[in-house]
Write a structure and sequence with these properties.
Order of helices and strands: EEEHEEEHEEEHHEHEHEHEHEHEHEHE
Shape: globular
Oligomer: single chain
Distance between the termini: 18 Å
Number of strands: 17
Amino acid sequence: MTIVNAYAAQNATTPLAPFNFERRDIGNNDIQIEILYCGVCHSDIHQVRNEWGGSIYPMVPGHEIVGRITKIGDEVKNFTVGQLAGVGCFIDSCRVCPSCVANEEQYCDVAMVGTYNSRDKAGNPTYGGYATQIVVDEKYTLHVSEKLPIEGVAPLLCAGITTYSPLRHWNIGKGHKVAVVGLGGLGHMAVKFAASFGADVTVLSTSKSKEQDALNLGAHHFAVTKDPETMKSLQGKFDFILSTISAQHEYNDYLNLLTLNGTMVVVGVPPHPSLVGAFNLIGKRRSLAGSLIGGIKETQEMLDYCAEHNIVSDVEVINASEVNEAYERMLKGDVRYRFVIDIASIK
């Protein structure tokens, strides 16, 4: 066992604070990673504050992890000591169900094992990346290129793959008119990917102040959703809409913006269910779908694509001691566009 320094929540209402725990020793197929950077995801807030229920305390959040390998097991084949490596939202799955066999481990029919706030196959709680070290089976570890600034790579392990996966699944590219709802941690990555794939991209936002950022990120158009006339003018305009916001909103308002056979995919998680009018779907044979991160194979594909095309997340690097303030700023939308913890600040 190795003593690891971390930041943890002891319950749903107290701030995150320094915490020590023991990581398991590496097994034959494991990799030990010294964590260098860890992104701060909005889902960290949900789980720390038990907003989704079932939270396990003490909780060490963090599933956007980049670091350097310090030790490998005797049977590890695809990684070596000294390489950069990444860990995303899960660290295990059943490995044998149809979803796992299809490289869609995020949809494991038994249950994927989350990087944190989950239990491993031995029943032990998992602790995430707001920590100095992690041990992971090589099958659930990702190669990270040396070409890119790794603080900007860290959020790709969640925000990146969450937006990359649906765009690829629905084959978005040249000739498609795409709307991205919201320009936050997820939305800004959606804009970068959709534009890179050749789509015509419009950002839909409640905030006029984000227009220049949207255009700088690669969007071709920007529209303020608070303007009824603007929303009316956009009806039937988009082939594909990616809803990235976690604030409560009306899906019906956006479904009406889809063209015939258009699809709206939800990746943000609002706190309450949204009613959907049947006529908003059947009138133009529209589809409403959801998408959850990506499997290991697709996440590696995304990381390789980003290295080739020089795509990273726009980040604000913080010390671990600033994480509670960062949570409050995230809730106010005061981040451009992802907080990343410098894990050296925990040591």
